[in-house]
Amino acid sequence: MSSQTPAASQDFVDAPTHPETRGIEHVAPSERHGRARDLFGVWAAPNVSVLNLTIGATMILLGLEIWQAVAVIVAANLLWVLPGLIAIAGPAAGTSGSVISRALYGVIGNKVVVAFTGWFISAVFLALNWLASSFMGADLLARWGFADPVLGPVVVTLVVSAITVLVAVYGHALIIRSYTAISIGLLVIFLAVTAFALPTVDWGYRAPEALSGVPLWSAVTIGFTIIASTPLSYINSPDIARYLPRETKPSHIIAATALGGALPSIFFTVVGALIVTGLDGAAVDAGIESAILGLLPSWLGPLLVLGVMVNTVALNGMTTYTSSMALQSVGVPIRRIPSAIVVGVIGTALTLYLVMSTSLLDAVNLMLQFLVVVSGPAIAVFATDIVLRRNRYDAIDLFDEARGGRYWYTAGWSIPGMAAVLVGGVAAAVCLSTDVWTGPISEAMGWIDLSVPAGIIVSALVYLGLSRTVLGRFDETPAEPGTRAGRVAPAATAAPAPPAASPAAPTTEPAA
């Protein structure tokens, strides 16, 4: 058991004007606040995105008809229910998902899984979204006379990443308070873009070569995988919901999270699919983002670029915020704010590499497909565990890292959890179809990509079967109000609690 105890409530100021010093520490009942509906804006802001326009264009470039593309987009976005489901674990345990997952993988096994999934997924999404804003920002700078093909994207990336890290430093309260307003502002900008772009749509569009049989299913499943990778990647949803009162209805949390992510994603991905039907081959080759700018009046182009940057900050700010807690949960002795800065530096470095080595469309498609090998099994195991335990997690034992603790399992490893995520990952990989890697099953089926259903179904079944035989019944004791048998849910093990601060003064952290 960690020897540290939680800091008093006054040590943490969850206000949008104060940097948030809390990391993975348990959120006491007295510090819970907010409503489930606040989560809608949090998940809508990142998904009013130019990345969705790019992904939508990909559906048509794969050879799909408009109606087929729309069907794939809607079907893949139904998977937003999974981030909604796992979000309910946050209020139940009162801590981050990277700590709750100790119940899935064991104390030591969780460090390995979180170090890989938390950092890999976070770094990829930071880079993808910064990449989108850097290309569009550089294109706008080129139209204004600053045409350096390398320096332009680099400057935009550095500015956007710095603002992103600042959002992550201020943390939960700033995200909750500002993202609804950001969603509304972005919606206005992207609807204006849609209004000017739709007149160019070829509503009678037909694919140059109509697909049928195996080639059609190959295009459909590859498109499904690309779109599904986004909701499957949000295994951090419990981190955003953990401040909600424990009595908040799970159905409300699921609905606010799933609808906040799915509705704007469906709409603007469909818009991207429509826009590309009116573009010629040269415009597509120059880049979808550049082609969209070319369709807009001079006054709207800068607003779109500004919207892209704000959207990027919204998405990556939340990602950086949650991944900063992942670093703490694996045992690195670092406070949350320096951890957020480290995450930002890594994401910036990867973005700068991609800026100088690839196109946006190539990077998006390839990385999103590979993500499902990791994210699909991980979110499926988490969701299955929530159902098995009936969303009952003991915050006291989640912080007990001693041998013999409830989540120590076998030498610190949970056999069901580790086996499920590994077998599910292998199942996804052998069913994956990309330009770089095609699994043997996918190749045998004619490049049909079943990586998403294979990863989710196999990992869930393995976890369910082994949990029933190895772990026995799931009889968790709820951790409300944060104490049991005279014990108190500990603070983060990564660093001592900060000194108490006056409620009237901002709480800050020392520099890294």
Structure in words:
This protein is an all-alpha fold and 512 residues long. It has a domain at 34-361: Hydantoin permease. The chain has helices spanning 38-44, 50-61, 66-77, 81-87, 89-93, 97-100, 102-105, 107-143, 151-170, 172-197, 213-233, 237-241, 250-276, 281-286, 288-294, 300-329, 336-355, 360-389, 395-398, 415-430, 440-444, 451-471; strands at residues 483-484, 487-488. The chain has a two-stranded antiparallel sheet with strand order 1-2. A hairpin with a 2-residue loop joins strand 1 and strand 2 (487-488). 56% of the residues are buried.
How are the strands of the largest sheet arranged?
A: 1-2
Highest-level CATH class of the domain at 34-361: Mainly Alpha
Strand residues, percent: under 5%
Q: What fraction, in percent, of the residue positions are helical?
A: 55-70%
CATH-level-2 architecture of the domain at 34-361: Orthogonal Bundle
> What is CATH's topology name of the domain at 34-361?
Hydantoin permease
Shape estimate: globular
Within CATH, the superfamily of the domain at 34-361 carries the name: Hydantoin permease
Number of E strands: 2
Helices and strands in order:
Blueprint: H1 38-44, H2 50-61, H3 66-77, H4 81-87, H5 89-93, H6 97-100, H7 102-105, H8 107-143, H9 151-170, H10 172-197, H11 213-233, H12 237-241, H13 250-276, H14 281-286, H15 288-294, H16 300-329, H17 336-355, H18 360-389, H19 395-398, H20 415-430, H21 440-444, H22 451-471, E1 483-484, E2 487-488
Helix pairs in contact: 1-10, 1-13, 2-13, 3-11, 3-13, 4-13, 4-18, 8-9, 8-16, 8-17, 8-18, 9-16, 9-17, 10-16, 11-18, 16-17, 18-20, 18-22, 20-22
